[in-house]
């Protein structure tokens, strides 16, 4: 591949990360307050250079976070909008969990965006969730508790990913092998930006969601694995 083609690929990645930057700024105030109240700890931009292996880890974490947040918000929306029993989402949740192809994960963008917007638009999101949780069966309460916990983990993880995004750009520009996978990194950057923008609005409700579900966020949420959902 020519150097000109490499520069074109790098430009696509950089464009995606520039889109992440406004989300990072928006997250600064809203999510800092929410994370503190929820006991999520702190996380900020990372310093230093990033190796190729670390760039790969960023890619994997971005896709994993996308699936986690999509599942969590899908379950929560099902409850607050009274769409029916959570077990009705079994096929959908299994399909998301089993997806590993970057292109397929990238296709989740529209569904994820719709979920985040729907939750952000609810004026009484926390109150609606509390009502839905109280009306749920014992099994559904367990699932909703996991969903809220996973959402909190997703918020902390996303802040960490947004902070690492500029380093990923530097790593890609200096590594031709990574540039060959520019499309995957561009998709990851877009997904991180989408979550950053969408989660900023609903993050302030997370402490109340955790309290309603009687669960406590882990001390270091950004490094904690999400809990698998079984329906």
From TrEMBL:
Q: Which domain of life is it from?
A: Bacteria
* Protein known as: DUF4142 domain-containing protein
Species of provenance? Sphingomonas swuensis
